[in-house]
């Protein structure tokens, strides 16, 4: 899991410095909206909404923006959003798994297919690559004044499979089945994570020369720029020289 956690940390750093904050906010707003439509506007009784709000706070989203997103989700006349996934092969056969939230699936699939085609890849059928990934809970928790040893013992009891620490943040990995248990444990400890989400973690990774890997990352960047796309996962081991 160390390679995955390293990439998660880099993504976190990149997100903290990302000038395209509106794109980050757009994704979180969609998550809040769907959470409200599925489970209501009361965060206390809606675990998904509670998690989405926590992620919004971690991204420094203003309270007013969070409340507008909740109100939008409660509006019965608002556009219906649906969650969908896409799977395809990037350059050199790298597996790419895309998660999206959209109000127009035809538009989204057309865009995703075009991105793959223009960048040396090919969109495949749903289910064709999902077996290459495991769903894992990934939590990023600020160090604060936590006692490392005591904290790690607490979260191991809650189902932590892997714990890493870098630059003042813990990255915790759990099985999908323990995702809810970890949320409850952090709530009991009165710890608010910077982010908490289910990710698709590659069971094994493929290594490519730097120039080839750069082409794959270009495709991933293009897909991530799409307003409907919420997450992109892959099974490429990123060369150290491209990590920065």
Question: Layout of SSEs?
Answer:
Elements: H1 2-17, H2 21-39, H3 47-58, H4 63-74, E1 82-89, E2 95-102, H5 105-118, E3 122-123, E4 133-142, H6 148-157, E5 160-166, E6 169-175, H7 179-188, E7 195-202, E8 206-207, H8 210-225, E9 229-234, E10 236-237
Parallel strand pairs: 8-10
Antiparallel strand pairs: 1-2, 1-3, 2-9, 4-6, 4-7, 5-6
Helix pairs in contact: 2-3, 2-4
Note down, in words, how this protein is organized.
With 244 residues, the chain is an alpha+beta fold. It has a domain of 73 residues: Integrase, N-terminal zinc-binding domain (Arc Repressor Mutant, subunit A), CATH 1.10.10.200. Helices cover 45% and strands 25% of the residues. It has eight helices and ten strands. Strand 5 and strand 6 form a beta hairpin.
Provide key terms for this protein.
244 residues, alpha+beta, Arc Repressor Mutant, subunit A, four-stranded antiparallel beta sheet, 8 helices, 10 strands, 45% helix, globular
CATH architecture of the domain at 2-74: Orthogonal Bundle
Helix content: 40-55%
CATH fold-level name of the domain at 2-74: Arc Repressor Mutant, subunit A
| Uncertain residue ranges | none
The beta-strand count equals 10
Explain briefly what this protein structure is.
With 244 residues, this protein is α+β, with helices and mostly antiparallel strands. The chain contains 8 helices and 10 strands. It has a domain at 2-74: Arc Repressor Mutant, subunit A.
